[in-house]
Amino acid sequence: MSTETRPVNDALKVLEERGFVQQCTDVEKLDSLLSEGPVSFYCGLDPTAASLHAGHLVPLFAMAHLSRAGHKAIALVGGGTARIGDPSGRTETRRMLSIDQIRKNADSIGAQISHFLDFESGSATLVDNAEWLADLNYIEFLRDIGKHFSVNRMLTFETYKARLETGLSFIEFNYQLLQSYDFLVLNQRYGCRLQIGGDDQWGNIVSGVDLIRRVEGVETFGLTCPLVARSDGKKMGKTEKGALYLDPSLVSPYEFYQYWRNVPDSDVGKFLLLYTFLPVEQVNELAGLKDSEINRAKEVLAYELTKTVHGSGEAEQARDAARAAFAGGGKGGAASEDLSSIPSLSMKSNELSKGITAIDLFARTTLCSSKSEARRLIEQGGAIVNERKVESIEESVDSSWVQEGQLLLRAGKKRYFRILVD
After folding, report:
1. Which of 135, 257, 295, 389 is 20 to 30 A from residue 264's alpha carbon, by CA?
2. How confident is the model at residue 287 (pLDDT cuts 50, 70, 90)?
């Protein structure tokens, strides 16, 4: 990652002008603290899955901006808290994972965080709270830490109020104590003075600030980032297959690129500020483009974000594949290697010679999650094979549809999949 740094007193200004600040325990005092010199701060990410997803990008970029401003990042992978499950933003209890699975997830997530923070130079530190949570003495923890928490106050936080309607387990009720204890431990070990996180973490964060004040008599701070939504009402970071994961084995770099290439026009400026490191002046220029020119800004957004998450090589391949596909579905002289980043599968020519229903063909791909979805796509006129429209659900695709050894499937105007025929 880039080693570019800015003066420490620009840190909060950068976060504010790029849209990262939703709530802060005391913004004026925090600004003063950040201006005095390097400050240790942390953000926690629980390894409840094998990969982070698009919803984690805002805190990851916020950490990166603070780190680039010269502050000391502590990325906490919650190998301990993942054994409990954070109720924040959820309507039901999380599925319990085995200790081995949590450890594997933690390793994968730590590698993904390294795309945003430089652990090798010492400017950032990676920790796992299982180190101090896994072997806690429960009686001592309740006596020393639990005594500082008011159940009445905890129930005023939106996280718990919302879950009381659908059911809140006692184990989840403990989560706020554990996250607050994390902040206390990091303050004691690293002098950590700031915790950042998504706005659904506000209750947990302010509880940690309060705990440190009670135990250590030290003033610390909390800052939350907005929970980003799309202007078209679609759920943020969701694809036809599910969550937009950062792991390339779950969501290919091409699919990742395409998601951001196809965001609504009205979101481009906001997303360029949140999800790239481009200067604000350049973002404003790109966001000001009109009509078809806005596609250039979308391409910059998709390329810059894919480069951060997957590297410049994968970003370039995804961009070239998208350009080739949009230039004419792989025809008109577009080389097959230009399309190589588009998700694909192989099919034997003898299978295709017999013919396969278009429903079955599309259902095999990532374009449709089921045969019923493929049926709807065809009925709505959005199923295309090598620029040839599938006219009905009874239509069969056979060898006569093949061009240059492949079938280039398209769902609607923007989503592609390749069938390589051999």
Report:
1. 389
2. very high
Say yes or no: 120 and 91 in one domain.
yes
Question: What average pLDDT does range 259-263 have in this prediction?
Answer: 94
Higher pLDDT, residue 345 or 340: 345
Q: Say which CATH number the domain at 205 has.
A: 3.40.50.620
Tell me the C-alpha distance between 370 and 101, whole Å: 29
In the structure encoding, which two tokens stand for residue 39, read together?
């400050």
Q: Are residues 220 and 278 in the same domain?
A: no
Rounded CA separation 412/415 (Å)? 7
E strand segments, 253-403: 344-347, 356-357, 383-385, 388-389, 396-397
Q: Which structural domain range is residue 375 located in?
A: 344-421
Q: Tell me, yes or no, whether 239 lies in a domain.
A: no
**Helix/strand/coil for 77:** strand
Under 8 Å CB-to-CB from 296, ≥6 apart: which residues?
Answer: 286, 289
**What mean pLDDT value characterizes the chain?**
88
Which strand (E) or helix (H) includes residue 199?
none
